[in-house]
Hints:
The N and C termini lie far apart (87 Å). The protein has a 5-stranded mixed beta barrel. Strand 6 and strand 7 form a beta hairpin. By secondary structure, it is of the alpha+beta class. It has helices at 7-15, 18-21, 31-34, 145-155, 349-371, 377-393, and strands at 35-43, 64-67, 81-85, 99-106, 117-121, 191-194, 199-205, 223-229, 251-255, 289-292. The chain is elongated and about 125 Å long. It contains 6 helices and 10 strands.
Amino acid sequence: MVNRxxxxxxxxxxxxxxxxxxxNEKRDFKIDNLIVSARVVDIVLDETHPLFKEVGEWNGLGxxxxxxxxxxPPPVSYQGNFAKPxxxxxxxxxxxxxxxxxxxxxxxxxxxxxxSTNKYYVTPVSLWNHPHxxxxxxxxxxxxxxxxxxxxxSIAGAVRRVTDQxxxxxxxxxxxxxxxxxxxxxxEGDVMMExxxxxxxxxxxxxxxxxxxxxxxxxxxxxITILRNGQGDNRAEGWVPTTENINKxxxxxxxxxxxxxxxxxxxxxxxxxxSNSPSNPSEYSNKQILINSGRLVFNTTQDHLLxxxxxxxxxxxxxxxxxxxxxxxxxxxxxxxxxxxxxEPILKGNALVTELQNLISQIQLLVVALxxxxxxxxxxxxxxxxxxxxxxxxxxxxxxxxxxx
Length: 405
């Protein structure tokens, strides 16, 4: 019976034949034959790419055209070879002129040919150790003289520092290098994910006596998660690391445990409270979630939007609090309008109109009696003519919108 192997088992069998035939012969298999470095010449990201059908249409998204000659530029008409992304769930597509690692691994033909393989690539090589890009020109002597020092110094081991706003490396059709994108400064134990444009997630902790603005309280190791989109540090020296700043970054979400976050809240007027008013957001140091941006939208498409609180819910705005809805219902034991010290009760419209109508009826009886007396007849007649108008207008004094119990 033939013991047929598939997938990685088949690859392992091909690379290590002595495991199957019991011989002592081993293939001369070196690591540089396993992993190959290559330059990205092109990448297929949508159906407009001319190679879209050739790479398998939508199944081929992320496929790169690569060149293993890292020293010389490929010819203009270069087609090269294809390599697919290795990881199906985590996408980190390279830019043109970035360097990737290539691996030979099984393809969809392994059911028929167990040794059938494709080239797959893993994440770009961190040439500059920078999240923005790690592209390298096919010849470091080709950039303008003003930029050439960036690469010659880097080859010698120095940090690459773009000092003239941009470089001439072609990175893609829409990707334009920015010289003010900063990497995040790491701290012990951090796990970080950084995008190319100043967006990031830090799974970090309180780190005392280090340059960050979330470790003034608590103890080393207290967890914090920071999601940031758009950095507030706009210094031109993009090679200098930075840390998150909730007041300057474009949008932020902070999930804290014991940290005090120095957020500048737009309004901290808590004058409506008689006691136990909320702490200023920048002074609170227990577990909380802070969301900060130029605008916040909370929207539901199917069910309710629920805001619940162990204590109070404070709506605080510099200009106004507006509620636009078909029906507004407030159920409370006590409702105070205008001030926390309000004491005057609100009148009930229907009850008041009923009592005023009764009063008008009694006045009308009095007026009839006065009209029979010559001395008061004229004045009583004037009052009598006005009472029906007053009675009719009482209904207009009742609100058609606001109701109370």
